[in-house]
Write a structure and sequence with these properties.
The complex is a heterodimer of chains A (316) and B (247).
Chain A: E1 2-11, E2 14-24, E3 29-33, H1 40-47, E4 55-60, E5 63-64, H2 69-75, E6 76-79, H3 91-101, H4 106-119, H5 135-147, E7 153-157, H6 165-179, E8 183-188, H7 192-197, E9 200-205, E10 208-213, H8 215-220, E11 228-233, H9 237-245, E12 250-256, E13 259-264, H10 267-284, E14 287-293, H11 298-306, H12 309-312
Parallel strand pairs in A: 3-8, 3-9, 6-7, 7-8
Antiparallel strand pairs in A: 1-2, 1-4, 4-5, 9-10, 11-13, 11-14, 12-13
Helix pairs in contact in A: 3-4, 3-5, 4-5
Chain B: H1 3-20, H2 23-42, H3 45-48, H4 54-57, H5 60-72, H6 74-82, H7 84-88, H8 95-115, H9 119-127, H10 132-159, H11 163-179, H12 183-189, H13 195-202, H14 206-214, H15 220-246
The chains are: A alpha/beta (316), B mainly alpha (247).
Chain lengths: 316, 247
């Protein structure tokens, strides 16, 4: 549904987005991650046709966003980062305006408004003027506007920003549910959301894509992925560390909070690692008090690939 | 979805937002008070002893100088400030339709304000036998002039997210458009510049082109002048907004 090729945007001398390519199909929820100023919002603004790209193409459905903007925009529902709305309007007036702009009328319009009001939990504030609403409600009013025409493509810029934990949960569920039948791109800072809602994630840094994969694939990039952590007694820590380090497939051993963590040499060694460790413990007569295989941590992956080189070098 | 549907949707929203705030009512009251004051007191309506609205229309270029920018200054600057510009330009609407829709809504608002000054017509008709055709031409000219002022304000409000800056910019531009043809100024110019030069400068002035309407003459050149100011300023608005989005 969304096909982006070599997208670039230059503001003065700064290259905010630098050669980004990816595609999102129907049924996919793409999480768009990256530090502040990485180019997430700029990319989304180019997809939705708000700002023209300096280079590259964006196709939404069968339409090029630059060449046939109106056809492309009809397919898109967009929640901008600041969730803007007209403060002097009531929630109902604003949604009615959005419906009119989308060409909905009569019963279809009434049903569409009813549907998004229910979906975004706005029923209690429907007749209130938007400037009297709290941030969470204003945010959801703008989200409702994006959903009003049941679009095939949803672009959501930080949809859970400023919501309380319950609302965050609801919105994540909503995204996952909608993702079954739509192509969705949403940006976030919150890494748990990638697990909670995405089928795929892209990490962007300084305008370039630095990682692209399923949440599990991204986690596997972590240095922790496949590491075995064990708590055992029966020998002193030095002996255990030495014996573990001597095992085939173990790169290094590290003491963590009274336990020992053995890192695999490479990803092919990680599958067998836990068995080798158990066999060693049995051979040496250690009593195992705890044993687990690490899954890898998204935040560690995120930090490692988005921090400048000078900062990340010593942490390895 | 036709262009007409999009334009009228935008215009309706804009017009509703005028009346949703006290600004509209404050403006209407002030506009009517000021026209009344200028016509009857400063314009010496009764002392003139003639059945015409000359003392009513002669103040309009000056009255609009302050009041029209006040109506139009928020048109685009507010969209920029609140971020709704991003919402508007990601909806399936062509930019010219949005520009025209917002302009027409504000123009209609000014037309309502102007229309509410109808008691002066009744007054002058009760007191004497005025040329109602001339009065109608005056109203038409006044409305066109308001439209031209508004289009200029539309343009300045697209330049900035700050309403005050937009107001001041448009007052300065409009002041130039008035003074270029204001008799005391042209009399001064003619002392050292050639009459052809003075005439060329004056041809850009709203005063020169509003003059005919006040006398009851609807000249196609005057019509064309106001319509082309509107057209040019709205086109410039489109260019400014496009450049703003392109960054």
């Amino acid at each position: 549904m969304i096909r982006i090729e070599n997208l670039a945007k230059t503001f003065g001398a700064k290259r905010a987005v630098d050669g980004v390519s990816f595609a999102v199909e129907r049924g996919e929820v793409l999480g768009f991650l990256g530090p502040n100023g990485a180019g997430k919002s700029t990319t989304m603004r180019m997809i939705t046709g708000f700002i023209p790209p300096t280079e590259g193409t964006v196709r939404v459905g069968a339409h090029d966003v630059v060449e046939s903007p109106l056809q492309a925009k009809r397919l898109i529902g967009y929640l901008p980062e600041a969730a803007p709305s007209y403060p002097d309007m009531t929630v109902e007036g604003f949604l009615s305006f959005a419906a009119d702009m989308r060409g909905l009328a009569g019963d279809t319009k009434k049903r569409a408004i009813g549907r998004v009001v229910e979906r975004c939990f706005l029923a209690s504030v429907i007749h209130q003027s938007i400037d009297t609403l709290s941030k969470g409600y204003r945010h959801r009013t703008c989200l409702a506007q994006a959903l009003i025409h049941d679009p095939e493509v949803l672009i959501l810029d930080e949809p859970t920003d400023g919501l309380d934990p319950n609302q965050k949960h609801e919105v994540r569920n909503l995204i996952r549910e909608l993702g079954a039948s739509k192509a969705i791109v949403f940006s976030t800072h919150i890494l748990e959301e990638v697990d909670a809602a995405c089928s795929r994630a892209i990490i962007i840094d300084r305008g370039k894509i630095v990682a692209n994969g399923t949440p599990a694939e991204l986690r596997a990039m972590s240095v922790f992925a496949g590491a075995v952590t064990l708590q055992a007694s029966g020998a002193d820590t030095e002996t255990m560390t030495a014996k573990l380090a001597a095992l085939d497939g173990v790169a290094r051993v590290e003491a963590v909070d009274g336990a020992l963590r053995a890192y695999p040499r490479d990803s092919s060694a990680s599958g067998r690692l836990v068995r080798t460790v158990v066999e060693l413990a049995a051979r040496e007569g250690w009593q195992l008090d705890g044993l687990r295989t690490e899954e890898g941590q998204l935040d560690e992956v995120f930090r490692r690939i988005t921090l400048p080189d000078t900062v990340k070098a010593p942490s390895r | 979805m036709s262009a007409g549907h999009m334009i009228s949707t935008i215009a309706r929203r804009e017009l509703t937002s005028y009346f949703a705030s006290p600004v509209a009512y404050v403006f209407l009251v002030i506009f009517l008070l000021l026209t009344g004051f200028f016509t009857f007191t400063a314009g010496a309506f009764f002392e003139r002893g003639e059945a015409s609205l000359a003392s009513f229309f002669m103040w309009h270029p000056w009255l609009y100088l302050v009041l029209v920018p006040a109506v139009g200054m928020r048109l685009w600057s507010e969209e920029r400030r609140a971020g709704t510009l991003e919402l508007l330009f990601t909806l399936p609407i062509a930019p010219w339709q949005a520009i025209l829709g917002k302009f027409l809504a504000s123009w209609l608002f000014l037309a309502i304000a102007l229309g509410l000054s109808f008691p002066v017509i009744l007054t002058v008709n009760v007191l004497g036998e005025p040329d109602n055709g001339q009065i109608l031409a005056g109203y038409l000219g006044s409305l066109l002039m308001a439209g031209a002022y508004l289009a200029v304000t539309c343009m300045t409000s697209a330049m900035t997210r700050n309403q005050v800056v937009s107001f001041i910019l448009s007052v300065v531009i409009l002041l130039f458009l008035i003074l270029a043809g204001f008799t005391p100024v042209t009399d001064l110019l003619v002392r050292w510049a050639s009459p052809a030069f003075v005439d060329t400068v004056a041809a850009f002035s709203v005063m020169t082109h509003f003059d005919g309407f006040q006398r009851g003459v609807i000249d196609s050149r005057d019509l064309l002048f106001f319509l082309s100011v509107i057209g040019f300023a709205l086109f410039a608005t489109g260019v400014i907004l496009r450049n703003h989005r392109a960054g």
